Amino acid sequence: MELNFVVYGSWKIRHNEPMQLDDKQLALFPLRIIPEERESILLKTDSSVDFQSGIVFDGPGEESEHSADMDPDWFLTHIPLAVLVRQENVIRVTHLTLRVEEGFIQLVRNPGNERVPDMKSLGEHIYNLYEQSHLYLSNHECYYIKANETTELEQKFHFGRHLSYWRAHQEIFEAFDRGEFPGYTLKLGDEYQSWSFDNYLYELKPDAQEDRGYISAIHYCKRKNQWNDPLYMFKKKIYSEDTLERWEKNYENQWIDQDVQMLLEDYFGYSTEPLPPWRRTRSDIGVESANGNIFMVNIDDCRVLGESGATPWAKLQQCEIEYMSTRGIPDEEKVYADFHRLTALVEQFFILKGWQPQSTYYSKLTFLKDYVNQSSKGAPA
Predict the structure, then answer these.
(1) Are 212 and 270 in contact (CB under 8 A)?
(2) Largest distance between two CA atoms of the chain
(3) Dihedral angle at the C-alpha atoms of 37, 39, 35, 48, nearest 10 degrees?
(4) 187 touches 288 (CB < 8 A)
């Protein structure tokens, strides 16, 4: 029979602090929901963990164990440390704590897989695991790695009718929050982002390099010293047609105090054709798969600057699903499997909502070129 527990212990065990005997006490609480085999686990402490049936081990070398009857103050200095799986005489620590939030515990797979000799040595064993993996477990932002760094993997959907982009985002977010997309959870601490920024996009002219695509300046930056600093992000996309995968690279924190087109051409070494400036308003939902792959599901509402709502081809509304990175070392096969499964689940959600989704790779470059063509004709396609 297999038993699963969340192990609580002193914060000193996680951070390898010197400990007194009382600090070595552990409490094991059964999991009501047995976690799947996955790279990361998100547990809701108010529903996943059975705090009424816990067992306390008073310290290494102690033979006795007793039912948990923990003073609430005990939980002020004791935190979830690990998921323990016990099957007959085999004891393994399968996951270690990455983050502790109010009501949530996020754990990731234990980098090692050695057996725990016995329950009396469990505290020392977990202490050593945190010592060995302290960088990975306490600096998680350092360990988001993207498979194929310059490859954008992105699926888009158009809708058969106009939607309120904000309400559409809310409904998708609520569905993820309710657990309606099995195997995917909201990315803890980065569940939602909202953006609105202007874009200046220039199509590449044919040249000896034979590169196709565009370069652009986006009025967006994370590192301004002052609100009005003219800092932008440059983007370079190389592709010959709208497809699932495109070459892409971003160049952040770029200072623009001269003609944008001239500066971009000088920076990248291309000759370009300007397209109309446009504004992108978007709401992003951060999603993490059971394998630790991070995706962004966003609803875009884009429009050409200076255009009124009376010009239908001056506006673009899309859902985009994009692979962003992986917690730890990416497994490319799992990245693509998770991506395609997520896009299928989201498409089915759209169908059930009656939004009439159309799968597409329609790019912003194509949107702007179509706008120019249709404006010259004075009628939509």
Answers:
(1) no
(2) 86
(3) 180
(4) yes
